[in-house]
Amino acid sequence: MTTTTASLSYRLPQVRNLVTALPGPESARLAERRRSAVAGGVGSSVPVYAADADGGVIVDVDGNSLIDLGSGIAVTSVGASDPRVADAVAAQARHFTHTCFMVTPYEGYVAVAERLNALTPGDHDKRTVLFNSGAEAVENAIKVARLATGRDAVVAFDHAYHGRTNLTMALTAKTMPYKKDFGPFAPEVYRMPMSYPYRDAAAGLDADGAAAAARAISQIEKQIGGDAVAAIIIEPIQGEGGFIVPAPGFLPALAAWAKENGVVFIADEVQTGFARTGAWFACEDEGVVPDIITMAKGIAGGMPLSAITGRADLLDAVHAGGLGGTYGGNPVACAAALAALDTMTDLDLPARARAIGARSVARLSALADEVGVIGDVRGRGAMIAIELVRPGTSEPDAELTRAIAAKALAAGVVILTCGTYGNVIRLLPPLVIGDDLLDDALTVLETAIREASA
Ligand SMILES: Cc1ncc(COP(=O)(O)O)c(CNCCCC(=O)O)c1O
């Protein structure tokens, strides 16, 4: 069934409504408490504290109803209180919250593995392992690739983001804030040029996907040698690095080279997975079938769960006990995931994501023609972004980007920024957001861009 917004129902009023300045008094009091209790290294992009959330809105502790265009960084695709997820969580918790799958296993873990083996690209024999965070999934995908190939080298890309653990920091490109002063980092990680069509063209490079892949492959072969590479890991659309959509042909060329050289091709779909890009997984767009796919974020309606799903011959190469962790595939998170997957299926959220994207791109492309500060409008499905630049140039404008996000927030819309140059505004609405609320948020964003760039 293709979702029309008429078929969506909500618990909270789907409205943008400010009843205090932001932050309000209760948020201010919580911020004071936080200063004495929480380490300063943990940032928050929004100065208000959530009290409730549903569909496309977050209600703060002062009663302000904000439109959420962030989904908690691409997590609450089914909303932050999907009733089916909430009921499944409560029911499971009443039986048991934890036994540790490595001690006393339970069906929920197996059922999630079966669903992911069926849902992920490729009809080959697959196996799944569940963890808690995206970084943990990435770490374990690399462990499997190194064991299965007997090789050490791992290839990552410019603008990549893979996590905040030691190995995933090594794989991540941007130093501030993710890596600065946290080294030394894991060895045998090599960074190659990414296909970044907007900036490749601006730099006078051939922005064609096959040409970009040839540049990367040439560097891999000269710097490492194909027979020394355990894995290539890449986000099919780069998230934190700036919602960078590689040119058509780039991913298939890399995947083909990996296959020819016995290199494990890992698609990091932590941010692109589970309907976000208009398909269940972003790899589907060009028919790329990864050897291993890492997943998290949208998988379980907000509960912490991550996974690797991959070729059975790779994952079953690991010795018994070689993969695991205390909380991996927590039963409550597994119950949430099964419920969230049902919601995504019943509401056809891949189709809803495509509709959200079409609506957003149309408005932002029209605005780009009007104002001179939008260098690029890009993305797929409900993973859309604009890159802000100085008028008439491709020079990143991070200050303007921050000003736009601040103006949008002051008007009651939560917007996230990203990008290697800090000049990308990204739209990650819950996929259950209604058209009216989305349109209101887009109007606020357009106004913020016009005002900030005037
Ligand atoms: C592609 C991709 N791989 C891996 C990860 C890591 O997932 P974890 O669940 O945050 O560990 C991400 C997490 N992205 C948001 C991180 C935000 C922040 O920490 O400031 C991702 O996008």
Automatic annotation (TrEMBL):
The keyword Transferase applies. SUPFAM superfamilies: PLP-dependent transferases. Belongs to the class-III pyridoxal-phosphate-dependent aminotransferase family. This is (S)-3-amino-2-methylpropionate transaminase. It is an enzyme of class 2 (transferase). Pathway: Amino-acid degradation; 4-aminobutanoate degradation. Keywords: Aminotransferase, Pyridoxal phosphate, Transferase. Its EC number is 2.6.1.19, 2.6.1.22. Its cofactor is pyridoxal 5'-phosphate. One of its GO terms (molecular function) is 4-aminobutyrate:2-oxoglutarate transaminase activity. It catalyses: 4-aminobutanoate + 2-oxoglutarate = succinate semialdehyde + L-glutamate; (S)-3-amino-2-methylpropanoate + 2-oxoglutarate = 2-methyl-3-oxopropanoate + L-glutamate. The gene is gabT. PROSITE patterns: AA_TRANSFER_CLASS_3. It comes from Tsukamurella paurometabola (Corynebacterium paurometabolum).
